């Protein structure tokens, strides 16, 4: 499903015609139900994910890797409820779908979709197949062992590398056949659209070497870059001429990996046109392209354009965020939120300090966000994520989802159509600001709810948030002088930028509340007096404010 195709994707499902499909409310065997497919639309200010035809903000969480079996699901659902999540991301492994070639087993999918519906959750399926963190560990044994039919990349020395070659036509065909079976099963068994998106493969590319060195790959690498790519990136010549020596191998591997995955995605969408995306193991966003780590060939920042040219059926490429520093995370989100690519964060570390990056994601118009490793199976991927999913760690994410869950769709629409800005506490704990129209929005940290840290007349203890990686805010500008603000562990102030002589800015009204489904504001109370005298002070329990600014002379 390409973004530019504004599809009215209305699937008419004749329920009675599908054997084994149980819709208990179906009074008549002839009953027909129209279900709109999820889709992504481009809006003036960003992108909108539509589910059941309505704006949707994916308040997601990803289960651990090996939680993809019916016996594990009871340890997944309670965590989703605890988080106030609306969407579970979970793997479907090629090895479990097609344990023997041509024999397909859908029993896990049956349990998964049934459980998701019972728990009022949507699903994003992660197709772990030719690539999972680059390796083929989730491919069936009959694929892993047959290197004649399913070739691995060749090293420069001529030995087998661990990664499957993206130039392996029969590997592509076998993966595609299985993926089409998966999508066909969904078409026939998910008229409710419990599954809203699919991620074909997981963290693709290669470590250890940057591309295949088989004779076929060497031949291709010696030639010019493909003309579609040349047209898209406005460069031509050899891979090295077009991308420079440090990026040429990664660009080459990206092109062929993305073409491979695009063909699989297209075949799946032919059956059921769901939004599809590919996630990236990231390099350092501040490193010189091709030198900052990450998986070579995955949709990492330096090769997003290559992926866009190669994979028109991949609706977006998405960052897996385990970088810890605010400046890195902000830069990654800036680079993935593009007019041709909605920001979605399919993985972010599940340690509490990552939770504040939810605010930056919302500020970049993210259509979804999901901490990784969220279930009660007792596994911890520390030092990437949390040592332990204790109550405080879970609450760092849950508190934010709790605020957004009842108004997620309304927020999604507002964010897609209005300027937004999000920020999180940086390493040096300094404040941040931005300009929105004629207003400057200032965010600061480690302030009590009353007074100022540096006040000479009212001294205070150091704030307990000092040294703690918590705090952040998101602001949507809904009119020249009106803003929606949500934040945690932060203080916000608005100031008049470029004030005329004698002109002063003032808060006319600060209302706490929520959003109605139509986007209108439902006020609970007005903040004034101590609640506004020193700025708008947010604790660890975020709230939504509508701020109306004005001026006087
Ligand atoms: C990123 C991968 O995409 C996940 O599946 C998982 O392996 C994490 N890394 C590490 O826990």
Please describe what this structure looks like.
By secondary structure, this protein is of the alpha/beta class. It has two domains: 55-406, Glycosidases (TIM Barrel, Alpha-Beta Barrel), CATH 3.20.20.80; 432-552, Chondroitinase Ac, Chain A, domain 3 (Sandwich), CATH 2.60.220.20. 27% of the residues lie in helices and 28% in strands. The chain contains 16 helices and 25 strands. The strands form six sheets. The protein has an eight-stranded parallel sheet. A six-stranded antiparallel sheet has the order 16-19-20-25-22-23. Strand 4 (46-51) and strand 5 (54-56) form a beta hairpin. The longest helix has 24 residues, at 248-271. The relative contact order is 0.10. The structure holds (2R,3S,4R,5S)-2-(hydroxymethyl)piperidine-3,4,5-triol. (2R,3S,4R,5S)-2-(hydroxymethyl)piperidine-3,4,5-triol binds at residues 65, 133, 202-203, 320, 347, 372-373, 381, 384.
